[in-house]
């Protein structure tokens, strides 16, 4: 066991003189209380480490011991349905208002275990060797990716502690390996897979502005930047509840305590719309508030993505919500400053971009070692100061994501939800995902999407002109463009997360709503070309119905879309009839 003695300490960073070798990223036990730390620099016989707990009381001369292993977390069935800190320590194991110093990341629980292998079987890394009883997915027990061998013994079905030995293997060299339902994995090392697969299907979020305009692929990466009060946390909570992922990982990284308290209070009460059971049964929450040790905040992102990869390796689709990577970057900056490193842009360390890449590149759709298919989709919130998207964290993040959902303060203040600005957001997988929409029966999805974005862009230009000359001074065609854009904003892009009818919108319902509104716009433009004024079209009762289509056109009514289409046709026929009678 490597040993050292503290020479200097400043906040979460310390320097110690080593009497035996250490290695970078080795986990440490620091001081008499054995606080958890990690080696981050080596220089001769001096080690530099960051400590993941409050260092109050540490002083020069205190001992530092190396574990010989990298910073790791225990992955197993006991993760699901619980709340942890940034190092995967259960929040239930607290005294008074904080953790016991040096508390190990252990879970105390037992599970009904059923083996899936028998004595004499050959098993390989990533293979399922058993399952535990319980509701929801993610109940498989995996052979660690770096372990393989012949089964020497396996326990009978029954209830066992999560860390109890349930399987004994003999590897190719004749050594015995004892396996429990959980295994350790270093958080900074991506878990291996048999190969990456193309991201050719969307992760359906149930939010029309996302699925229709800016979809994220299953196994893809999305950024959600926005200033204070633009609705990042509310949108991520909606995505967690309604997206079509099997497992939800929610990490609150450096967020304010009151916001995290709301998440911790609300999530356990949410109902899973798939099963009607508690959503927490397939959710893991990692809570690391802004007043927790800054080094643990830096590690929380890696802990979350490691947990996501563990469930991915079980052949599940995982969605990871990180709120927010800006606070994580601030932790990097603080530790970097204490190390005396040369600061880069805005004081962030020069390696900010590569650390962001390390995180986002672990999102993927893969073929698992067991031969199945799993995915991790990452949605990272960014909190740029004053909503400035040119700041380093946002600008670097844009390099590594495929979907960029820019939240707009003006839309948020106008109570427009989701407050995503359609002209500053983008998605790069549209061409690939168009094939999926065709398979769902929407062959015109790509064309409608392009037309909708063009309409919104024209609206932005015309509104600037209307503020100068007045809306009534615009030609009828341009007034009709403004009317059509208002309809799409109010009737299609606006969606209330508090509405029982409209908080989720399936792809079939999105397709039906978009087709109905495009039909209205086509017929309205034809009517304007025939001499009918946009003002009369704006007074049509059918328009007001379309503006409330999200609330009044439920999932059960999708089959009746032809009835609404007929109403639109009849409304324009009546308008043309009235116009002809007036002209005569």
Summarize this structure briefly.
By secondary structure, the chain is α+β, with helices and mostly antiparallel strands. Helix content is 34%, strand content 24%. The protein is built from 16 helices and 28 strands.
List the helices and strands and how they pair.
Elements: E1 3-10, E2 13-18, E3 26-30, E4 35-43, E5 46-51, E6 63-70, E7 72-75, E8 83-84, E9 94-95, E10 98-99, E11 110-115, E12 122-123, E13 128-132, E14 140-142, E15 149-154, E16 158-161, E17 165-170, E18 176-180, E19 183-186, E20 195-197, H1 208-213, E21 221-225, H2 232-242, E22 247-255, H3 257-266, E23 283-289, H4 294-312, E24 317-323, H5 325-338, H6 352-360, E25 364-367, E26 373-382, H7 392-400, E27 403-404, H8 409-413, E28 426-427, H9 430-439, H10 445-469, H11 476-493, H12 507-529, H13 534-538, H14 541-547, H15 549-552, H16 561-583
Secondary structure tally: strands = 28
* Fraction of residues in helix: 25-40%
Question: Could you say what the CATH architecture of the largest domain is?
Answer: 3-Layer(aba) Sandwich
Could you give the distance between the termini? 100 Å
User: Given the structure, what is the number of helices?
Assistant: 16
State the low-pLDDT regions, or none. Answer: 93-97
Tell me the major beta sheet.
Answer: 10 strands, mixed
Indicate the overall shape. Answer: elongated
Mean pLDDT value:
91
Structural class estimated from helices and strands: alpha+beta
Give me the CATH fold name of the largest domain.
Rossmann fold
Q: Estimate what percentage of residues fall within beta strands.
A: 15-25%
Computed Rg: 28 Å
CATH classification, class level of the largest domain: Alpha Beta
